[in-house]
Design a protein that fits this description.
16 strands; Alpha-Beta Plaits; six-stranded mixed sheet; Aminopeptidase; 437 residues; alpha+beta; 2 domains
Length: 437
């Protein structure tokens, strides 16, 4: 048995013996309310507790306020309109002995809103079998805990890495936030490679989708045409547009995405109507049509598509669907952003971390690694489009993200700790003389 095989065996044994400690850490983080309230949030207490745990582990760790970072608001990926009082980031470092490559694990501590339908307290976690239930367990406190436990594993096994390992816990990722991640890049927290522990069901994503959340507004006229007035009900125009969106989603599902990460994609690019409003909702009844109909939609896209291009795809396709041009009287809706546009992003197939991470996945799982483009958008674009640190996405298995009954699979977290730990060893460098146990 060679040195690496021996270390992998030790890592696997350590992981098997430390599930309870991993579970306790995840319980501790879930019990803090870190719901993203779109404009503001209450992540501070959780971040303070996490920072204290990282310091106790032996990492250099600190809290910092986003607004105190020089160049934060001037960063090209900064998005205005948010309140970051009581919403600090955490950055922690495990210094290497020198001469190795650095690795950053970037996770977000905020969660989506509490969805209707929870039958238990969402911030009082519990375990049933291999499933740990709780808000944020899957998206993405579980992946963040796996990164922390991987560092703890190597520390307790006496491993000394040549390169530096960093762990950051950022605020405001949900609902297209990403400013927490922007602040870290403006601060200069860069590494030779980045792993984002978003939930991927143990698949490796070198690319992520983009998306836009728009409010699409159709305007019309109302009243009763007793005297021949022209009445145009915008709800009818909106209904036609929604039918078109359904067809467009189906048409998109028949086409593969850009090579190499989406060329074999069999998943649908979602177009979701998230909200529909028309008429005077405060009135006890309405006997005429509305003057405005608002349709909120979430539309995803592949890397390489910008916001204007995505909007034009919808508008030009709607003309073809209706067989009529806007100049000929087809209702032209207005589009307004509900959140920032999230561009898709991708790393090159030659990115050096890819084969290392895929190899460690195969070793830990006993099967070839699944490597493909992600079926979701996230903050990876901040790294891949706006920093020298390129990011891959790899996280645990689970279910019900952004939904009642969210859970993470503890067996997958065990596997993830092993993958992360061995990736640190092979990416950052480690010699046999650096191991003391």
């Amino acid at each position: 048995m060679n040195e690496i095989q021996s270390l992998q065996r030790s890592v696997r044994q350590w992981v098997a013996s430390n599930r309870e400690r991993m579970t306790e850490l995840l319980f501790d983080l879930i019990r803090f309310d870190t719901v993203n309230r779109i404009v503001d949030g209450t992540e501070r207490k959780c971040q303070e507790a996490l920072c204290a745990k990282l310091l106790k582990l032996g990492m250099e760790a600190k809290l910092y306020n986003l607004e105190d970072v020089p160049g934060f608001r001037e960063h090209p990926a900064y998005y205005p309109g948010k309140d970051y009082r009581d919403r600090p980031n955490v950055i922690a470092s495990w210094r290497g002995t020198g001469g190795g490559r650095s690795l950053l694990f970037s996770g977000h501590i905020d969660t989506a809103a509490i969805a209707p339908g929870w039958t238990t307290d969402p911030i009082e976690p519990f375990v049933t079998g291999s499933r740990l239930y709780g808000l944020g367990s899957y998206d993405m406190k579980g992946g963040l805990v796996a990164a922390i436990m991987a560092v703890r594993c190597l520390m307790e096994l006496g491993v000394r890495l040549h390169g530096e390992v960093m762990i950051e816990s950022v605020v405001d990722e949900e609902f297209g936030g990403a400013n927490g991640t922007v602040a870290g890049r403006a601060r200069g927290d860069h590494a030779d490679a980045v792993i984002i522990p978003e939930p991927t069901n143990l698949a490796l994503y070198p690319a992520t989708r983009g998306g836009a959340l728009w409010r699409v507004v159709f305007e019309g006229t109302t009243g009763l045409s007793f005297n021949g007035e022209t009445v145009r009900n915008p709800a009818v125009d909106a209904a036609r547009f929604i039918v078109y969106l359904e067809q467009l989603e189906q048409e998109r599902s028949l086409k593969s995405g850009p090579a190499p990460w989406y060329s074999d994609s069999q998943t649908t690019l979602p177009i979701i109507v998230t909200r529909l409003e028309a008429g005077d909702l405060g009135s006890p009844l309405c006997d005429v049509g509305p003057v405005e109909c608002r349709v909120d939609i979430w539309v995803e896209c592949y890397p390489g598509v910008d916001e204007e291009g995505l909007r034009e795809e919808l508008l030009s396709g709607y003309e073809r669907f209706c067989g009529r041009r806007y100049e000929e009287g087809l209702a032209l809706p207005s589009f307004s952003r509900m959140i920032r546009f999230l561009p898709g992003s991708a790393v090159e197939p030659e990115f050096a971390l890819l084969p290392i991470l895929a190899h460690e996945m195969e070793e830990a799982m006993g099967r070839p690694a699944t490597v493909a483009g992600s079926p979701f958008a996230c903050d990876a674009f901040v790294f891949n489009e706006y920093s020298p640190s390129k990011a891959l996405v790899l996280g645990p298995s689970g279910g019900n993200a952004h939904a009642p009954g969210e859970f993470v699979d503890l067996d997958s977290l065990d596997t993830l700790v092993e993958i992360y730990a061995m990736t640190m060893v092979n990416w950052c460098g480690c010699s046999s003389a650096d191991r003391h146990g």
